[in-house]
Every structure is written in structure tokens, then in C-alpha cells.
Amino acid sequence: TVVEKCKLLASAIDGVLKQYRLFCEDGYVNRELLEMSSGHIVFDSLKGCIENKYAYSLSDDLRSEMFLLFSDQSMMSYTKRTESTYETVPQLRLSENIHRDDYEEYQFHDLDWLMKRGSITVSDDGFLTINRERVYILKDLFCNEVICPNYYDPSLRKQVVALVGTGDLCYGSTLFSKPEQNYLNYILNKKEYSNGLDLRNKYAHDTCPLDEKTQQAGCPELQKIMAVIIPRINEEDNCPPII
Q1: Nearby residues of 101 by Cβ (< 8 Å), 6 or more positions away
Q2: Start-to-end Cα distance in the chain
Q3: CA distance 234 to 238
Q4: How far is it, in rounded angstroms, from Cα 167 to Cα 57?
Q5: 68-100, pLDDT tens digit by residue?
Q6: Res 204: pLDDT
Q7: Which of 55, 102, 106, 107 is the most buried (most CB within 10 A)?
Q8: Is residue 202 pLDDT above 60, yes or no?
Q9: What are residue 172's DSSP bridge partners?
């Protein structure tokens, strides 16, 4: 039945993660220790085997820089010549030859600040250029709230190391990124969100709803959770550490 599938999945999710935790701590899965473990899995406490697996925004300056470059509330993608044709500063610059004088006077402060931050440079004749590597990283971070430096090429990794050195980014080495942790907590329990679906607890403690449509909606959610977990665990063995 659907209820039985959900109970099996909820149980398997806990079992897989407990085995991973033992493997990460000891290098192998000790079955006796696994059978003695009874506590719940806390997602933000699950350590990864790879150091510096993720990077997160740490400074207000970096968040302000991303806002000016990418937010649809930023005025920096607007110039009096192009008006509102482009949504972001990189789109504007990569599509048009933009001169500093194309901006209004009230925008000069933010423009000069972006130049000071290094995301925009200006040539001797006043035309603006995007620092593509830095902007690529900031765009990834702005859209996803986290970046995975191990998948970047060496030049981008150097940019990440530099941003960590200036205190703009910080590394994380958990199994799941913070956005993933929030997603898992929302679906499986009420640790972070009072309106969470709480599927793991409901099926583990047999307090699940009797309505079959509700059960059928919960089963794919648990399947998706397993589809998130397995690649993350496999990744720990295949992803090269950042240098």
C-alpha cells in the first residue's frame, strides 16, 4: 500500500544516513554500532568527507554587490540610453558597449563602488568591462545561495580562495548544503519550519493521515528525498578536494 511504501522510505532514509555517518567517522560501516544507534539524524550535523565542499556568502558587502549586479530591484542595469531593456548589469554590459557617462549621476556612487569591489573595471576611454570570473561566481551564489568550488575550473577556484581570504565567503564541509538542509527539514520534520510536512515523523510514528490522496502526495516527496541523498553520498567519494 502507499502507507507501507512511505514507511519503508522514511525508515530507509534514516538508515542510509546513519550508515553514511558511520562510514564518514570510521571509514567503514560497523553494523553493531548501526544497530545500537537510535537517535534522529540532524542534517546540519552530518559532516562531509570532503573539506571545503561548499562556500557561502559571509559579508554584507558581498550581498550588496550581488544585489546591485543581479537583483531586479537594482537600478544599475538601467541607463538613459538602453532604458530597461536588460535585467542585470552583466546582461547590459555583455550586450552593449556601456560608457560611464551612460549612467545618471545618482548611479555613480554605486558604479564606483562596484569598480572598487572588482566586479567592474573601466578602460582609459571610459568604457566598462565585466570581471567575468568574479561575476560568474557571484551569479551562481546569488541564484543558489551556495556554490560548489570543487566543480569550478582552476581559475574560478582561485577567485573563490581570494574571496574567502577577504572574508567575503566562508567554506562549509557538511554532507548537504544549507539550502538542501532547509529543504530536507521542511519535508521530513518540523525542526526549522512549523508548517513543515513532517513526513518522516508521521510515518515513523504511525501518525500519518488516513486520506489516500494525501498519502499519494507524500510518497513522491520521500522518493525525491532519496534521490537527493544518494548522489550526495556518492559525490563524497568522487569529488576532488579543493586546493
Answers
A1: 126
A2: 49
A3: 7
A4: 9
A5: 999 999 999 999 899 989 999 999 999 999 999
A6: 85
A7: 55
A8: yes
A9: 54
Task: Report residue 174 as a C-alpha cell.
Answer: 557538511
| Cell numbers for 136 | 560568474
- Cell output for 186: 521542511
Residue pair 141/135 in contact by the 8 Å Cβ criterion = no
41: closest CA among 170, 225, 166, 218? 225
In degrees and rounded to multiples of 5, residue 54 shows phi and psi of: -120, 165
Partners of 128 in the β-ladder: 122
Nine cell digits for residue 129: 568591462
Closest CA to 88 of 66, 109, 110: 66
3-state secondary structure of 56: strand
- pLDDT tens per residue, range 204-225: 888 888 888 998 999 999 999 9
pLDDT tens digit string along 221-243?
A: 999 999 999 999 998 876 544 43
Report how far residue 227's alpha carbon sits from residue 219's, in angstroms, rounded to the nearest whole number.
13
* pTM of the predicted protein model: 0.89
- Residue 75 pairs in a beta bridge with none
- What grid cell was written down for 56? 557561502
DSSP secondary structure string, 150-217? GGS-HHHHHHHHHHHHTTSEEEE-BSS-HHHHHHHHHHH-SSS-TT---HHHHHHTT---S-HHHHHH
pLDDT in tens, 148-189: 999 999 999 999 999 999 999 999 999 999 999 999 999 999
